[in-house]
Every structure is written in C-alpha cells, then in structure tokens.
Amino acid sequence: MKSAAAVVVCLLCLLGVAAAARDYVREEEMALNPVHVRLHNDDLGQTTWMAGESDFFQGKTLQEAKALMGTRLGGGANEGEAVRTFDHIDDGDIPDEFDARAQWPGLIHPIRNQEKCGSCWAFGAVESLGDRFAIATNASSPVLSPEDLVSCDELSLGCLGGFISMAWRYIESVGVVTERCFPYAAGEGNAPPCPPKGQCVSKSAEYKKYRTSDHYRLDTVEDIQKAIMTGGPVEGGFEVHQSFMHYKSGVYSREWWKFWDPELGGHAIKIIGWGNQNGTDYWLVANSWGTDWGLDGYFKIKKGVNECDIESSVYAGDPLLA
Ligand SMILES: *[C@@H]1O[C@H](CO)[C@@H](O)[C@H](O)[C@H]1NC(C)=O
Ligand SMILES: *[C@@H]1O[C@H](CO)[C@@H](O)[C@H](O)[C@H]1NC(C)=O
C-alpha cells in the first residue's frame, strides 16, 4: 500500500507560525533515513526504542510526511476549555499497567489509516468516541466516521488540519454518524462535500448521530489515567519529530536525535493505556497510520515528562446514551 501512504501540507505552514521550523526541514529529503535507523539501533544501550522503516513512509519526502501532522497544538488551542478532574478516585487506585484492549475485550476498535489526509485530529476523536460508546453500553458499537468531522466541521480545515478541542466541541453539539453512513473518502487528501443534513452517503445505512453530553480537557497525568480507566480511551496530541516516523518498538522519546531531528507538526492519536517497560513509564497509544507502522499500528511513548507535549492536549467526552 505504498501509494496509499503519503501526505501533503501542514496547518502550521498555512498559519505561518512555523517559519523557522519549516526552513530547518529540508522538504525534499526523504522522511525515512536508513542511516538514522542503523545508527540509532547500534546505540541501543542508550535508548529505549528500536527504529525501523515502515511501508507507510517508504518513498515519501519530509514535505509529504508533514502534511499528515494536521493537528494544531498550543497557541491558545486549549484556552477556555473545561478541565475535568477525578478527585473522587484515589491516586493509589491507579494500576501500574493498563491496556483498554485487555480491560474491555472486543470493545476497542481496530487501528485505522488516515492515508494522505491531515485528518489525525478527526481519527483520534471518533476512534476514542467509538470505544467510549462501546464501553458505556458494554456492547460492540459501530465504527464512527472521521469523514463527518473532516467534511462537515466548519471550524476545521479538513485534510489541512484541525483542533482537538474543536473536534470535541463538534461531537458534543452536532455529533458524528457511523463509518457505514459516511465512509472515509479523504484518503487521497481531498475531503468530499458534507452530505445534506439527515442523510447518509450510503443509502442503505441508518442515519444516527453519536454525541457526547460534554467535552473536557484532562490536565494531569493522573486525571488522564483515571479518565481512561473509568470511561475508556481519550484523544491526545503531540509534536512529531522526524525520528518518530522511524519508531518500530519500545518506548519512544527524543534522545540524541534531538540535535538534528526536525519538528514536523502536531499529530493527534488515541491513548488506550500505560505501563512500564524496563524501568521506563509509557503511554500506550493507537496511531492512525495503518497496522504496518510501529507495534502493529500502536506505539509507546515516555509518560510523566510531557514528552513532545503528549500530556498537554488530552481531550474526551462522555457518550450521550439514548
Ligand atoms: C459486559 O458484557 C460481558 C459479555 O456480555 C459480560 O460478561 C460482563 O459481565 C458485562 N460487564 C458488565 C459490567 O456488565
Ligand atoms: C528490556 O530488557 C530485556 C532484558 O534485559 C531485553 O531483552 C529487552 O530487549 C529490553 N527491551 C527494550 C525495548 O529495550
């Protein structure tokens, strides 16, 4: 699926706020660098993760890879958003390890692939929402439509990017339909038009909006954990550097690559748990780059140190049950 695995532009460039980073990124350079992979893996005593070359980024330039990082972080994106705390749960009741797939067997939806569209912000949102509906009802629940957000949420720029907070605002106020109702069609980088209100793109599907009763930001490591263990996966965002695209296994963190590891932009994902591997605390995360990338589509990233800002833009909402 090499052809279905590339990219376009990034919102940061559009907004012109990343001029310095943009100059630093040599855009025609290939996203994957076999020399980095070899040097990194030779240095394993010094690092907590293994690098590799995935089909997903094979043959893509850094410029193409940047277009996938369609999540706008920082710059006031979290301003004014309600923060949810879970003070009624004792910190001591947080388990050392948690994996939503083991906690709720059969209820966590599989890894998806955003392809060439900068729609990670939409995938992270509807994927955690779908899991949260399944968990709240203790029954399998349909795959939800990222295309609904990409094509219909007017506060976003579709394949050119979006805000995590705005995605959850849309989910609370409007809601999203199922994947069957409005299938993902933006994979080549162009979002189809929003269908008329009340109509599915595939006529045989049932029209139903999945909404939340609220949406909120999670501001501490403990509150992120408590939100996941009580309600299910949450959406998070972080800054992607070139090294991250080479992740294969272990616990990711920026290490010696930091000196020549350009920042590509914001990326949104679904956090499903946490744990400790060889003495390093990590978040367990579902990506939307297909199952060929990373640990069958998942990755682990250092927890508790706000690695690449992963703990700064975490959002969820409570499913509105009929
Ligand atoms: C959820 O459903 C499963 C399988 O149907 C059942 O075994 C389990 O007890 C249920 N859990 C709760 C909390 O109701
Ligand atoms: C963790 O430690 C074990 C035993 O020392 C080792 O075999 C394994 O490769 C380590 N894993 C990582 C990801 O470093």
From TrEMBL:
List GO BP terms, alphabetically: proteolysis
Q: Which SUPFAM superfamilies match?
A: Cysteine proteinases
Q: Does the keyword Cell division apply?
A: no
Keyword Signal belongs to the record: yes
Record-annotated membrane-spanning stretches = none
Listed SMART domains: Pept_C1 (SM00645)
Keywords linked to the UniProt accession: Disulfide bond, Hydrolase, Protease, Signal
Identify the residues that the record assigns to the Peptidase C1A papain C-terminal domain, covering every copy: 94-318
Any one GO molecular function term: cysteine-type peptidase activity
The record ties this protein, via CDD domains, to: Peptidase_C1A_CathepsinB
Signal peptide feature range: 1-20
- Top-rank taxon of the source lineage equals Eukaryota
Q: Which PANTHER family match?
A: CYSTEINE PROTEASE FAMILY C1-RELATED
The family note in this entry says: Belongs to the peptidase C1 family.
What name appears for this protein in its UniProt entry? Cathepsin B cysteine protease
Q: Which organism is it from?
A: Chloropicon roscoffensis
Source lineage: Eukaryota, Viridiplantae, Chlorophyta, Chloropicophyceae, Chloropicales
